[in-house]
Amino acid sequence: MCNLYSQTLPQAAMRQLFAAWAFTDRTGNLEPGEIYPDRLAPVIRHDGSGLELVQARWGLPSPPSVLKTSRDPGVTNIRNLGSPHWRRWLGPAHRCLVPLTSFAEPLGPGRGNQWFASQDPTTPMFFAGIEVRGWTSVRKVKDGPTTDDLFAFLTCQPNEEVRAVHPKAMPVILTTPAEWDLWLSAPGDQAIRLQRSLPDRALRLVPDPI
């Protein structure tokens, strides 16, 4: 599963992509780079009157049944949308877009990662994300309870390129304004149809993050 990605799309480009929406950038000076679980990352979410670009922590609350201690490291990828744990957050108010420019899948012990980027460098990519605000939990024992805005993104069957490296899953990636609008706004039965892989040959293998 995808537990590492990079994001280098400029903030100005994101504002331009969503010019048809009321869009507010609340991130300040956003640093591009690689993003790991439990780190802050930019997400585009609803703010009541339009969309806002904010930073949230990667990893949604884990189902209580999988926790062995009070510490919850968070769930980074979501596959089973039929689970009651996730269903409560599938409405439009909790859906978000997570910008990325490349993502990684592990090659195996000691072999590092394989990076994937769009076949067309001009194509913007966003994970289909879910976000929860103001969640209190123990993410790290040394920090004790913290209250955070959290996010994760959907996964699906892999396409041809990803399947050769990771046969179980790939992130759900949205690349067109119609898909972004559908994910952010449509009723649940329509939005979840986007839980599908990119077409074969839509991605290229790259040696390093972009």
List keywords for this structure.
210 residues, 5 helices, five-stranded antiparallel sheet, hypothetical protein yedk fold, nine-stranded mixed sheet, mainly beta
What is the CATH topology assignment?
A: hypothetical protein yedk fold
| Strand-residue proportion | 35-45%
**Number of helices, where a helix is a run of at least 4 consecutive DSSP H or I residues:** 5
Please give the alpha-carbon distance between the first and last residues.
19 Å
What summary fits the major beta sheet? 9 strands, mixed
Choose one word for the global shape.
globular
Provide the residue-averaged pLDDT.
96
- Which ranges are low-confidence, i.e. pLDDT below 50, for 5 or more consecutive residues? none
Classification by helices and strands: mainly beta
Number of strands: 14
CATH architecture call? Alpha-Beta Complex
